[in-house]
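User: These chains co-purify. Model them together.
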Amino acid sequence: MLSRIADSLFWMNRYVERAEGMLRMLKINYATSLDSNTDGNYDWYQVLYSFSQMEEEKMQAIRYQTHEVLQYIILDKSNSNSIQSIITKARENARGLQDQITKELWESINEYYHKFSSGKIEHMLNTNRQSYAFSSLINQSLYYYGVAEVTMPRGEGWNFMGIGKNIERALQTADIVDTRFHDIGYDLNTPMDISYWKNLLMSLSGYEFYLKCYPTGLQTQNVLDMILMNTNFPRSIFYSVKKINYIMEKLAQLNLKEEKALLHKIGRLKSRIEYADLSFIQKVGLHPFLEEIRNEIYDFNYDFNKHFFAYH
Amino acid sequence: MLFENYKIKSNFWDEMAMPDGNVRAHYLNLLNKLNNIDTNELTRKEEIAKLMFMNRGITFTVYSGNEEGIERIFPFDIIPRIITSTEWNFISKGVEQRMRALNLFLHDIYHEQNCLRDGIIPAELIASCPHYNRAIFGIDVPHNIYVHIAGIDLVRDADGTYYVLEDNLRTPSGVSYMMENRDVTKAIFPELMNKYKVRHVSNYPLELQKILVSLSPNQTQNPCIVILTPGVFNSAYYEHTFLARYMGVDLVEGRDLVVDNHKVYMKTTHGLKKVDVIYRRVDDEFLDPLAFRPDSILGVPGLLSAYRNGNVSIVNALGNGVADDKAVYAYVPKMIKYYLNEEPLLKNVPTYMMEDVEHRQFVFENMNKMVIKKTNDSGGYGMLMGTTASDEEIEKFKQAILLDPRSFIAQPTLNLSTVPCYINGELTPRHVDLRPYALFGPDGFKLIPGGLTRVALKEGSLVVNSSQGGGSKDTWIVD
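Assistant: Joint model of the two components:
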């Protein structure tokens, strides 16, 4: 397929994945902000810090103002990482490859975009229907993935979509883990109460799974184990990396030197996560360990782009 | 009863109602349906139609100042226009005759130029035509076909006679709207579709694909066919994606292609792949910066040399603009006689050449009855409607004509026919034209039974172009 098209498919999925991750995170934080113990003074600093490029001064100014924060993170067009900006970019990519995706998929992303362009979401946020706005947007991305799953032919294009989605997901999960563990000084022996982790797990849609699979007790270490390495948890970093590795094997048909190098890179990363254990992670330190994973992914992403999409 | 207030205009042909107040037979079923329907119901159908266009992304973007562009749908009128098969068969024969003559003319003008030698068309007219493409002279195209796809605009005058208003032989657009309009109509008037036997239009992409395959320079099993688009900002971009989707071919931009050793390749994830046929939606002058406009970034450097060497087929051929120049248009009836030895079936609108002193004199004395057109503009730009123009505008045009008479023609204002439209909760007549889509390939001629009916939505307006606030409606050919 055309390199330009492959590039657009990759980014279209990356953007939708990014929006979905952010929406889940926002939804949980918003629900928490309504709990009585915050006195209507929920601190959004961490969210602003992780998901936007806002200047420190401004973040300090609006960190306790739920309405302003949501406006900025969801709707603000001057924020290139607002959900609206991201979905607009996803849709522009889709528009440039309309003939390469199924009509249903194009319509689903177009509908997603028009939820913003029609002012519907803005209206919900201004009329105290925030939860409804989150659900309706999250449903839109689930609809998008469902349509893709059911209608898209499995081939090269599908593979580029898969790589885009999983690179985005792995990076996002790594970022979220890093932020939450930074707050407890990366100390894996701190026995944090489950309520501390509940938000994180819920924003990854993994709270129920966690309760089912992990014994009570060592919460901190269990949470880390699940988000880093659990094979059955679709948002664990290992799961995404394994997926990238699997798709890369399918893409590398030509036996080119560059493709082999890409396979080595991702394979090495997969093994590193698979065979890491908590004592090893404690030895190198959680933050450096996560940094290394992120750098490896960026590195792979760079070479991958250069090999498949370089058409300039 | 919607029809009770339907007022036809005198001196205009209404396609549904006769002057005595009776309804033409082929509109009866439609009318009965409309008379038994609540206006709320019709308004709801209108809403559904709008939503369908919006969700499918059949929109164009309006930019104003440095605001972000606003997306709008092309206005769509829900009442279908109905044409009988008897009329259609006549149109079909007339368009085919015209296509054959125009193809012979294009071959002639880029080879022997007999039509100039025999004095059929004045040489200076061709020499002064900006779309006469010298680079094409002497190039042989597959099967000598230049116009593979044509949009021939037809109008009906006061007595119902069909006239050809203009020929679009370069990159005619609108065919996707013809098909989408039908799709939407199926969703909002299913029971009506059942009542009429409407000929279907959905074969167009397959018919076009057949032609593209047959034009491949090397007749392999699987020739590589692409559609070349200027990109997402082009106003017809939706159509480009639509055709690529339903022909199952790649939609490429200039930057996706490269010419090497007079062959065209596209840049894929597995390296370069040779391209055999290009259906281009990019105008001649932007196609190849080495041969035409050097500042174009929409084209492919070296494309002309690949074309000249016969390594790639291009649809429509380059240089067709000389045949749809509005001054050359006046000579099409002569071409039909000269090349085919036949009488023209479809009439031309009488056309006055501004270079001709007598013609000019006559037009200047009757400006308020004339339509003045620039010979090389399209889309309703550069037009003067004499009936509604102010004295100032008329004066301006006169000056412009005197400065450059070759660039203008004049035609008497036609009384375009009207059809019923549903506007603001009422059934009311509006003026229309008709653009049927003709395909011409090695296996002969095909006119898709339907077309794009363009409507001047403003009351009394005679300008149907979408750039001037026109809309469209579904067009039914019924047996």
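Chain A touches chain B through 27 residues (CB under 8 Å).
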